[in-house]
Design brief:
This protein is mainly alpha-helical and about 80 residues long. About 90% of the residues lie in helices and about 0% in strands. The protein contains four helices and no strands. It starts with a helix and ends with a helix.
Amino acid sequence: MSKTLRNQLIIAAFSSVMISILWFIGDLAFSMNYALAFVIAALWVPVLLRHKQREGSMFWNVFFGLLGLVVLSVVVRVVWLIGRG
């Protein structure tokens, strides 16, 4: 197993567990529950499409970058909602 794949698997697994804990303890709106399910699934996309990352095309770089920004913004919003409530 390559070092990059191992690191991606560790990050995706750890993040999925942490977000699942947020999902479990947070009293969130119905739509945010769906958003967290999307985030957990989105964390595994780079791992599953790692062969596309190796290609290094601009399209895939932009796709993974935007996916990361969406995941980050949803997680920040969830933490803010939990902290506010």
